[in-house]
Amino acid sequence: MSNDLKYTSIHYNEYLQVDKILDAQKLRSVEVEGKVAHEEMLFIITHQVYELWFKQIIHEIESINEMFDDGYLSATESITCVNRLDRMVEIIKLTIQQISVLETMTPLDFLDFRNYLFPASGFQSFQFREIEVMLGLKNEQRHTYHNTPYHAVFDEKKQARLKELEDGKSMLQQVETWLERTPFLEFEGFDFIEHYKKAVRSMLNKEQAAIKSTTILSEKYKEMRLTMLGDTDSYFGYIFDEEKYNELVEAGTAKMSYKATVAALLINLYRDEPIFQQPFQLLNKLVEVDEFLTTWRYRHAQMVLRMLGKKVGTGGSSGHEYLSKTASEHQIFKDLHNISTFLIPRSDLPELPEELKAQLNFHFSTQKKNA
Q: Which of 280, 265, 273 is nearest to 359 (CA)?
């Protein structure tokens, strides 16, 4: 490309394709009845904006997955990933706020044009399905309606694209591989799990002694609290015993491997160490992406309840009921949320040896990916 062409001028309108965008709102109320249903314009524009934001989210996911591609992540790439995940979080927050704009339309306003939408449905948003698959939502984890595969509403080309994404590595799988390959757990002279076990036992013993010695609680409530503490103890057993943890994986309760989960736990526990700050920020942003996607699903479900009550959705789903179930069942990074179950107070945390800190710093700062 010549320099003349490279730096040629372009008009704002042409660069943004403004005419195409502004000509993309075709009101069905006008096409069918020849009369404008005023609120239909808001409905169309809101959903078009959703699709534009979905396109940007896909753009970010693709770039992050490329950086994770071989299971390693340099310090520089880690910073970039955190920044792009943060952008995704802010975009999802915007999509949640858009629901409030859409809710300025009343249920009666919606009925002015709803009948013209059949059988169109948000369920048919191909880009949103791409996002789910690229992040790590598997077929067997999906809540469906009428036992219909989620991809059945798309043409063959789009079905093939979703199959390609399903067969590839999702962000969840990329993060799992990255965690498994981190050097944070393999150090001579420091067995993280053994030190962690002792710290947990010490913490639980102190809590047990405090319950028994208190004069505020009755014997009945002491018994209840001690029973609850025993239940807490059983949670930690999954981290103490790899075979026990693998039972969760086989049952589908856990998705990430034992090694990846232990690595995520260590990073969360020692987040105050400078060396663990960047990995912690990355894991924390993944949790936020999941959290706000779930929030968006819940808000969407509540909006549908407000607009339609118990009516069936335009695409044939059970409307509010279906959307509520996807909100509770379609969490992708649930394993990272569950790390909080295994956290212990800083006061009980085993101190890292100074020589280990120095070794950690060496490993984390290396930039080589093909060594």
A: 273
Beta bridge partners of 190: 187
Angle between helix axes 274-308 and 258-269 (nearest 10 degrees) is: 110
Highest mean pLDDT among 50-59, 73-82, 313-322, 325-334: 50-59
Burial letters for 165-193: b for 16+ Cβ neighbours within 10 Å, e otherwise? beeebbbbbbbbbbbbebebbebeeeebe
Average pLDDT, the chain: 87
The 8-class DSSP code of residue 187 comes to B
- With a threshold of 0.85, does the pTM exceed it? yes
Q: Residues 12, 17, 19, 20: what is their CA dihedral angle, to the nearest 10 degrees?
A: -170
Q: Between helices 242-251 and 258-269, what is the axis angle to 10°?
A: 110
- What does 205-235 look like in DSSP terms, one character per residue? HHHHHHHHH-SSS-HHHHHHHHHHHHHHHHH
Half-sphere exposure for 367 (CA within 13 Å, toward CB): 2
Q: Which residues pair with 187 in a beta bridge?
A: 190
Residue 335 · residue 256 · CB < 8 Å? yes
The amino acid present at 119, given as its one-letter code, is P
Name residues whose C-beta falls within 8 Å of residue 301's C-beta, 6 or more positions apart in sequence.
320, 323, 324, 327
Q: Return the bridge partners of 59, or none.
A: none
Q: Tell me the pLDDT tens digit for each residue of 105-139.
A: 999 999 999 988 887 788 789 999 999 999 999 88
Q: What torsion, rounded to 10 degrees, do the Cα atoms 345, 347, 349, 355 define?
A: 150
Tokens for 215, please give them: 């004069």
Instruction: Give 62-108 pLDDT, tens digit per residue.
Output: 999 999 887 778 888 999 999 999 999 999 999 999 999 999 999 99
223-235 in b/e burial notation, b at 16+ Cβ within 10 A? eebeeeeeeeeee
